[in-house]
Amino acid sequence: xxxxxxxxxxxxxxxxxxxxxxxxxxxxxxxxxxxxxxxxxxxxxxxxxxxxxxxxxxxxxxxxxxxxxxxxxxxxxxxxxxxxxxxxxxxxxxxxxxxxxxxxxxxxxxxxxxxxxxxxxxxxxxxxxxxxxxxxxxxxxxxxxxxxxxxxxxxxxxxxxxxxxxxxxxxxxxxxxxxxxxxxxxxxxxxxxxxxxxxxxxxxxxxxxxxxxxxxxxxxxxxxxxxxxxxxxxxxxxxxxxxxxxxxxxxxxxxxxxxxxxx
Length: 263
Ligand SMILES: NC(=O)c1ccc[n+]([C@@H]2O[C@H](COP(=O)([O-])OP(=O)(O)OC[C@H]3O[C@@H](n4cnc5c(N)ncnc54)[C@H](O)[C@@H]3O)[C@@H](O)[C@H]2O)c1
Known about the structure:
alpha/beta; Rossmann fold; 7-stranded parallel β-sheet; 10 helices; 14% strand; globular; binds nicotinamide-adenine-dinucleotide
């Protein structure tokens, strides 16, 4: 039987992390590097991504950075060609946006853009993983949200829709690729104190929309743990899912939400 140290060790493995420049992605990079994993990092934010990479390299792992927008399938396919995806053992589809917009003002272009980032990019990244890792297998960790199961805040229909799509995609691919050497799960973060949520909170406060402010208050009241989570608390679960600690976890939704969904 392997020791816990051996199970969690990712030395010799290589992982892609999307949205690696900020928040949860940045925290995942730190934990994977600590576990000895080589990294291929992607984001749109160039300078921040390079800083994250610099910190990871201090752990003596190899780190490459690719700056591009995940909204277009062609760019995702090009990226996999450039990195020669055969060497990728782990894929973490973490990048995402949470723009607030009233349902009645949604138009096709807006919802299309949200879906491109939050759902279609995950689909194309998974497709490339299966293409390049045929006969080799690998691990995929996708990012949904508790909002997909329990829509709690106003003006986030487009977000919930994309995130429930990620859950459906994960379950479908788990059925199809489980017997082909792949393990694939979805993490459902609750309220996590990241750059993204801080920016969203500032925008809500600036607009002074009473409904959104009361949603935020009620959201906090409902969390049994009584506080927001830290990016590292999600990163530790992502690391566990990538590792031998989770060898029989497949097709699952894992809330990391301080008990929000249970309350
Ligand atoms: N923080 C939370 O409370 C929370 C809750 C539920 C789900 N999530 C999910 O967890 C994931 C990470 O959230 P976070 O709070 O760390 O976000 P964040 O905004 O702090 O970081 C997201 C990163 O993704 C990158 N990104 C966004 N759009 C991109 C695009 N088109 N192409 C390339 N990169 C892009 C951003 O540049 C950013 O660095 C997201 O999928 C989010 O939906 C977060």
